[in-house]
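Input (Ferredoxin):
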Amino acid sequence: MKKDRINIHFTVIENGIKIPISTRHGRYPNLMFLLKDELMLESFGECGGVGRCATCVVKTKEIRGNSAIKDRNEPATLSKLGFHETNIRLSCQIYITADLNGAEIEILEI
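Output:
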């Protein structure tokens, strides 16, 4: 099966409401763009996905593989806001891969 045809299913929690999401690998460059598009979030991801503004902070559960690793600007940006937990992430730094299958993503208000 081709990588881009793999269906990925996970749950997003926004304001206490669970929303099932289904997508495919490669449909969005990262989780931030998917959330903005699917949930029409305003003032979310203002820096465009470079990991500096922290307007796309999420709490993750059940993310596996490489998607669970913080990389690039993410650790420094989160640290400036006082977030040191491994499950607090910038959605712009999470790629849409099978690592998200079955995950739960909660959008945090900052």
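The domain at 3-107 is CATH 3.10.20.30 (Ubiquitin-like (UB roll)).
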